[in-house]
Design brief:
Layout: H1 5-14, H2 18-39, H3 43-59, H4 70-89, H5 97-101, H6 111-133, H7 137-148, H8 153-160, H9 164-185
């Protein structure tokens, strides 16, 4: 998730704003909790780890403005914290290296979760299709041949009668435009 509104909130956080910190906690706590339940069923451990992640964010608030993808940052921090705590708890128990480094990740989806996820995926697919149609013809053709027809860059160059470097240039420009379009059309 691109920082979006979080950029301003993070800037406020660097200025010791407790209101900004509270807003971030309210926004991200549910997502962290749901993700954490996939890593551990120990709710006490999970809530402690989430609190540790937010305490760490507060303690390092003066550098928080450098965080570009806050949700990703928080999810990574939570996963690492849970793994660290679980490894410390397991020191007295002999486990294989694989078991110690890879927690049991449990996937359980409710019907509502699956419906919402499918709807979000469809919305993203529709948006991507719309954005692809805004690209110039040659850029659309390169993307189509590479990703839909799974041709190699050399094959695409032969089909389009251009050199290989031109394929890379068209692809690079397409990706740059798609990223810009995506950012511009994503509601904040």
């Amino acid at each position: 998730m691109i920082a979006g509104k979080d950029t301003e909130t993070l800037l406020q956080l660097t200025n010791d704003s407790e209101a900004a910190f509270s807003a971030l906690m309210k926004k991200y706590y549910p997502a962290l909790y749901r993700y954490g339940l996939r890593l551990t069923k120990d709710e006490a451990l999970l809530t402690d780890c989430i609190q540790d992640v937010f305490i760490n964010l507060w303690q390092n608030r003066h550098t928080a403005a450098a965080i570009t993808y806050l949700q990703q940052y928080l999810l990574i921090a939570l996963r690492r914290r849970i793994l660290r705590v679980m490894q410390q708890e397991r020191k007295s128990v002999l486990l294989t290296e694989e078991q110690a480094n890879d927690p049991a990740f449990v996937l359980e989806f409710s019907v509502e979760d699956l419906i919402v996820e499918k709807q979000l995926e469809q919305e993203k697919a529709d948006k991507l299709k719309e954005l692809l149609n805004k690209l110039p013809q040659r850029q659309k053709e390169v993307i189509y041949l590479l990703y839909y027809q799974q041709q190699t860059p050399d094959q695409v160059a032969g089909i389009m009668q251009i050199n290989r470097q031109s394929v890379y240039n068209l692809l690079s420009e397409s990706m740059r435009k798609l990223k810009a379009f995506w950012r511009d059309t994503t509601p904040i």
